[in-house]
């Protein structure tokens, strides 16, 4: 597992970055919460920071409000070693906010303030195309597909990255309250399905996209298509399942004391991408892929042991400690 920034290829992540307001106590509704702590978040930004914290090279592409929160978020990216060359600031719209309830089991419920928020207003002509062309891996979600002009910017960035030879990585990161309807969410998430070579979905997203009550191999493989190199289904505290053209299997989880699941999937994705960015052949060798997925599972597990996503994203030494203890 290489950890030096000097020789790593670039992973570029596109999408939303926002501020999560997390209750000071767990297990209460938003209305009952006595107070909130602000926590930077947004899945694509979390992935970029996860990569950087593991010693990789990452850049974030997106739009923030030209406000205190927007500049704070850009500062957090830079403090964490993520390139902010792909960030634009919008003078007319605010940085997105989300109020997040932490249920007593560490799972979350969301209430969003985005009407519209700056991230939704990213235009195709604002994209830093040189940065996107220099990516070896280009990662994105589906929230940037919900409205124009951001949707067009997302599609253009994907096309430019693909033409430049990047591996495309997709984590839909379903947030139903942000979509006009369930039907629209499913339609748009699947509209770019056949472009990515690495796709990660959670067990809940798998059931949503397929309409099935199962998370078995048959259900997962109904989402398979020819261009795909790796399909991952994360199962929370049960580990993950993986599918390639040649093999499939599952990787066991790590048992930890879960406090907050925020960012666990992003940590998992960042770890995976950081390990394959300079050696895509890992996707063709099951033993090596399993080793990388075990590392990614460890990253996800560690992330659930602290509140908030970014503060909880692990370093290589923290992951090695968990791996060596199991």
TrEMBL record:
SUPFAM superfamilies: Ribokinase-like (SSF53613). It is an enzyme of class 2 (transferase). GO terms for cellular component: cytosol. Keywords: ATP-binding, Carbohydrate metabolism, Kinase, Nucleotide-binding, Transferase. InterPro entries: Carboh/pur_kinase_PfkB_CS, PfkB_Carbo_kinase, PfkB_dom, Ribo/fructo_kinase, Ribokinase-like. Gene3D superfamilies: 3.40.1190.20. It holds the Pfam family PfkB. May play an important role in maintaining the flux of carbon towards starch formation. This is fructokinase.
